[in-house]
Every structure is written in C-alpha cells, then in structure tokens.
Specification:
Elements: H1 31-35, E1 40-46, E2 50-56, E3 66-71, E4 74-80, E5 83-85, E6 96-103, E7 113-120, E8 132-135, H2 143-159, H3 163-190, H4 195-206, H5 208-220, E9 224-225, E10 234-240, H6 244-256, E11 263-269, E12 283-284, E13 287-291, H7 298-308, E14 313-317, E15 321-323, H8 327-337, E16 341-349, E17 355-357, E18 360-362, E19 368-370, E20 386-387, E21 395-399, H9 400-405, H10 419-429, E22 433-444, H11 462-473, H12 475-478, H13 488-491, E23 498-504, H14 514-528, E24 531-537, H15 546-553, E25 557-558, H16 567-574, E26 580-584, H17 586-599, E27 604-608, H18 613-624, H19 627-644, E28 649-652, H20 655-660, E29 670-672, E30 692-695, H21 701-721, E31 727-730, E32 746-750, H22 755-761, E33 764-767, H23 777-784, E34 789-791, H24 793-796, E35 808-809, H25 813-825, H26 827-844, H27 847-863
Parallel strand pairs: 9-12, 10-11, 10-14, 11-13, 16-22, 23-24, 23-26, 24-25, 26-27, 27-28, 28-29, 30-31, 30-33, 31-32, 33-34, 34-35
Antiparallel strand pairs: 1-2, 2-6, 3-4, 3-7, 5-6, 7-8, 14-21, 15-22, 16-17, 16-21, 18-19, 20-22
Helix pairs in contact: 4-5, 14-27, 17-19, 18-19, 21-25
Length: 864
Amino acid sequence: MNKAAPPARRSRSAPEPAAAEPAAPAPAMPDAALAAPRPHGVVEGWTEHAVWGWAQDPARPHEPVAVELWDGEQLILRLRADVYRPDVPAGDQPGSICGFSLPLPQHLLTAPRHVLHVRIAGQEEDLANSPMIVEAERPPIGWVDFLNLLPLVESRAAAATTAVQMKELLGPVMGTLGRLLPRFLEIAEQGGEARADATLDLAFSYSDRLGELLQDFTARYPLLAFPESKAPEVSVVIPVYGKFAYTYQCLASMLKVLPTTPFEVIVVDDCSPDETLFLPSVTSGAVRYLRNARNGGFIASCNAGAAAAQGRYLLFLNNDTELREGWLDALHATFALRPDAGLVGSKLLFPDGSVQEAGGIIWRLGDGWNYGRGAQADDPRLNYLREADYISGASIMVPKALFDELGGFDTHYSPAYYEDTDLAFRIRKHGLRCYYQPLSEVVHHEGITSGTDVQGTGAKRYQLLNGRKFFDRWRATLAQHRLNGQEPELEKERGVTRRILFIDETTPTPDEDAGSVAAVAHIQAMQRLGAKVTFVPSDNMAHLGAITQALQRIGVECLHAPWYWSVEEVVRKRGAEFDAVYLHRYVNAFKYAGVLRAAMPHAKLIYSVADIHHLRLEREAQVTGSAEVAQNAVALKTRELQALGTVDQVIVHSAYEGSYLAGMVDEAQLNIIPWVVPCRPSDAPFAARNGITFLGGYRHPPNVDAVEYFVRDVMPHLRELVPGVVFRIAGSHMPEHFHELAAPDVVLEGFIPDLQPFFAQQRLMVAPLRYGAGVKGKVFESLSRGLPCIASSVAAEGMGLLDGEEIAVADDPRAIAEAVAWLYQDEAAWTRLQQGGLAYIERTCSEHAVTERFATLFARLQAG
C-alpha cells in the first residue's frame, strides 16, 4: 500500500496550476456549530465528457443532495446525486444514495480556458479534488513562436501579485526544463564534460544567482556514477515527489551494494517542487530521469516508468529506502527458482533494524496486516521464502510482460494505496503466485512521502477510500480469509496443506554429500505437494550463514540458535503445529522417534533410511576381516530395527533396500523413493574428453576404501591396457594420506565447486566400491551428466540399471580395468551407455516421478 503526492488540480491539456494560498483564519464559531457535520463529497474522476464522484449531507444521509457544476462564476447545470454507492456509508448503513455523474457540455466550453467547480447546491466551497482546469487544444508552435512567447511570460511574471499566478507561469517552464536537461547533460558527457560542470556552466551563462544555487547543490550532492546499462535485465522504477535528500540517499545506498544482475534505474519525477529537477546533474550511467508533464500521483508515475523500461523485470522501489547487499539479486533469482512466481517482494526494515513488514496478510474485510512488524530481523519465522497475500510496493519485482498484460497498476486506485495489493490479487487470479523473499532486505523510512495520518488531508487518506474499493472488487475472494487478527501464523501462508518438521543431524550441504542431495530433493518434493517444511539440525543448532540461507531461499523455515537450542525445545514450544515429522538417517530415528511419539501423538513419523548402516558394516567386516566392525554391525542392526518399528512410514532409495527390509516392515509402510536428479549432459564430444574420475565425500569410509583399492589394485592393470590414462580423484574432505597415492597418472583434484565443466572434460566415471549400502549418489551424478560409469555390483545395487546398456558392472581389479579400457576406446559403446544412462535418470529420478511417490506416501499417512 504505497504513497505518492495527490494531484492538486487536473487539466486536459495544460500544466498543473498549484494549490491556492491558505485563506485567512475563519472567525471563531460556537461549539454547537463546530460539532454539526457539514455536507461534503469528493470528485473522483473526469474525462472530456463527464465528471463524477459522490456528495452527501450527514444530517440527512438518506436524502440525495443537489450538485452543481460552475464555470468560474457561471452556473452550468445542477443534478441530484442519486446513484447508490455501496462504499460510502450513511450513518450505520453500509452504503448510501450519493453518487453523481455530471456531463460536461462541450458547446458551452468554448473559451480558451475554463475553471470548473463542483459544489453542493447552496454551498460556496468546492468538493474535494475541485476545481479543475480545462484548456482548449492548441496547435503546436514552432521554435520561433516559442522564443517570441518568452517576453510575454516575463511580462506576466512582472505583473503577477500572488504565488499562484507565478506557479501557473513557472509550471510549464519547469516541466520543459525537466525534459530538456537530461538530454543536454547526456550530450555534454559524450563530449567529455562532467555533468555537474555542464550544469553549472549552463546556469551561470544565464544567471549568476542560479549558478550559485546549483553550485551549492552539486557541492552538497556529489556525483553518483553508476555503471552503464546497455542491456538491463531489471528496470528499477523509483517514483518521486519532492524529498530529494531521500532520493539521493536511496541511490547512494544502491551504489554501495551494486547488483550483479544487469539493471537500469528510472526515476520518475511527479513534478517535484524541489531540487529533484537537477537529479541528472548528480547521477550518470544506469540512472535515467523522467519528469511527468503534470502531477498525477504514485500510480501514474509507476506506470510511466514501466512504459519506459527496457528490462525483462520491473522493480518498483520507494525513494525513502536504503538498500542492503543482495536486495535486487535475491528477488531476481526467485523467478528462476519458482517458475510460478508472478511477484516477489523484499523484507522491509525500520531504520533501527527491526522488521517493518515480512509479507502482508489481507483479512476478510480487506484490511491489511504487516506481518512481523516490530520483530527482530533474524527471527526464523520471518526468514524463509513463502507465499504472501501481498508485499508492500516499497520494493517489489514483477515481470514486465506480465505487468503490461495486466494493464499495470490499476488507476481505479489513483492516486495511491491498495494498487500493490490489488496487483497481487490480480496476479494470483492470473494463475501465478506472490512470494516474500527475506534474503532481499530494504530499510524503509515509512511515512516520509505521504505521512501516516489516514484521517488527514495528505495522500495517506486514500488508504481508507481505496480500501473500500478493494473490498468491493475482491469480496468473494476475501470471504475465504479469516477476520482481523485470527490465526496470523496460519493466514500468513494460507496455501499450506500440511506442516512437516524435518530433522537431520546437520544442515544439508548438497554440494558435498549424496545424503544432503536426497534431503533437499525430498524437501522440495513435499513442498510441491503443498507442505511447509520446518528444518531442525539436531547436532548443531547454529545458523551456518550461506548453508542455512540455501534452505531458507527455497522456502524452508530453519530453526536455529539463539531462538531454539535443541530438538526437544522445538517439540516443546511448537510440536502441536506439525502434522508429520520426517526423520532423516538412522541416528535421528533411533534418538527421537520414541520422544516424538510420546510428545506429539497426533503427528505421523516418517523415517528416511538413507543407508542401511548395519548392512554396510557387515560388508565392511567381510572385506576387512574386522571382528570389531562385525560386532558393531550386530548392535547397530538391533537399533535400526527398533527405529523401524516406531515410525509410521519408511523411505528407502532403491528396490534392493526395499526387498531387504520387506520382512522387517509392512508393505503398506515401505516406500521406495529416490531423489530428484536433473539431466545436465555436456555436449562435449568423445574425442574432446580424456581421463577417468572418482567423486565422493571422504568422511564416508567406503569412498576412501574405493580410491585406495582402485589406485593399488586396478591402476596397474589399467596402465597396461591404456597407457597414459589419468585417474582424477575429486570430492570434499579428502584425507591427508591421499597425497601418498599421487602420481603422474593419479591426480588429486579435491573439492570441485562446479561439476559441470569438470565432468565435461572426463571420459569416464568409476565407482569401485567394495562395501556400502543404499543408492550411490555418485552413480546418479555421473549418469545425469552424460558421463558413462563403470561401477561395482555394490555401487550399482538395487538401481535396476542394465549392464552394458546403461552402466558397466565389474568387480575384480582386472575386470574393472578391462571395462574401463573398453569404454575409454570404443566411441560407439561409450555413446550407447551415455544415452542409456540419461534415459534411465529421466525415467527414474525426474521431479514428476519423485513427487508422485511422495503423493502416495502422504495418502498412506492420511489413511493411517
């Protein structure tokens, strides 16, 4: 709900005359007279053919009053205001008969200039927004004609006796200057002259006094040199009316935290009466300046800026804001993250750092609520991407094509207020969604432009008037909302269908381990089914900066210290709100399933096995011959079976794991759900690639063993079969002793931040795991990147991959080396496995396939 300066008067073809000077104080009146309500009304709009609004006598609210149209001192016509207006109350009634529409008699408006007044009959005072100026259309004048008019303007100025008369003369001159000055400065800058210097030279050439004023101005406001903007992705539209110091402060803060996304800035000046006219003198580069021909209000300025924009996205920004790092980039990135986004808005902060608004709620009667107002900015409730009823237009981004298609901000709400809320509702009706993005933070000096008094005479009063209009338009939609103040925690995200508490040991790091990849993929699948996911890291409750923000960015509420210190505290304070708990990995299921069952008997428990740990240990014992590992496997199996028996639903990633647990878990409780793996193949051809690689996180013992095994036992055979082939070891948390394995054909790559170019250079992936359990993320990663894989039986277990068509399976050292040599040298076979692997990923691990399996799981929870 935004603000702008209201128009003082209206004209079809002439510049805006300023408001009249204050009248002398009226004589004191008796208290009874002061208390008596007077007839009143508002002119709401006009065209060349009619003027309309409402008028009412509060003393007789059910009797229509007579409304008159005057041209100067001449009465033109009188009509009754007898149209029913549901938005204008009469006493205790919701509506009244008070509307009018007066025709403008064109045959009487023949003079060059008319001052039209709308009044209630018997009163000498105009209704609000009256009078208006109507001037006859004139043919355009030439340059010589314009020069000849200047002496006439000066003579009229010399004869003027009031400020109003002077403003009528200065208005057109200032408007013309506002349109010419930016072009002059652009040309001067192209010629090598600084903008401030060019302005001063121009001013001093005509007037020493003007030059001195501008010299002081440029000294107080140093040049803000923005980068050039030749192909902006985002157009930042800043509507302004006066308050130049705030506009300059806003732009200065933007310069300190420049976005990485290409952008331009369009400052739309709504006939400001201050230094705003000279903004082009102290800005350069991406900043463009437009000055309206006449004052039209916030909506008109925003729409004018949008019409001039070159970017694919529009970012509407109030001038009384200060910007923080990432403010624009976070909004822009959300559209790629959420293809259904139609509008994305920022977190608004007060200057003291507390929250002004974290997304808005609209209640059943159309009144708004700035959710989070007064809270601390790091409150977990306010720091995750979520849908909102609306986001205040102080900082919102919209695709330009969508904004244009919807007709921009609706002038039904002119000059300001509720236009942003109405836009959000129209976007949702269009089938898209409105998102609050807390990673975009903007400090907003609330009330600077239009004040805060809705009962006063400033633009803020339109908040009440337009609130009625909004309610009338969206009454049916609002009927589904709660009344003011009821259940704000539910109303702030009304589209949520279920609430799930997700517990893992640590905050996911999907660029480091497959378990994290699976966790994030499952979170997003549940979100696609309408679930809100709240994440708790059981082992480390700290906010981990960018790692935690990565979850918040995709819409996950992350609970962390100092707001919460343990899973138990979360359960105690908020357990009642969750419909289900997702326990990721064995350790969390074993530790918390019993506690949750007792504390949250209403909630269903989901256990994602991730890895059958006792099976992995049994295999490790077989490979290493360790009696200690074998004993640990027996103890761990008892605990895992205990966890399986405590929960409502179990998730495994592969068919093999499903068959292994078939006798331990009821069929109706067992769900085989892989994780989403997008296909991202490189177009690098066979001949352009060289070398083989292994990828893994080396905190996982099977990966360490696989690398050591490959270098020690497989590489000697491979050197014989394919001399010179290079084995590259990649992945996070590489142990120090790996340096002992390094050789000219064994390269330690370490952690790879961007796998795409790395995989595009490799010819093959190897996964020679000798023990382990569960689906192997490295195999998924390899196939999805179009990199054929040679895997052991353990690595390919339970995935249903066809040997020789989608993957190559080999176990002993010589067989692995021969499989590598075959695929490394046979381009036809390499291409067949590349295409087969991609087809497998698309068939098994697509977003649709994983989401459908979660839909089945949710149906089971509902039935149970």
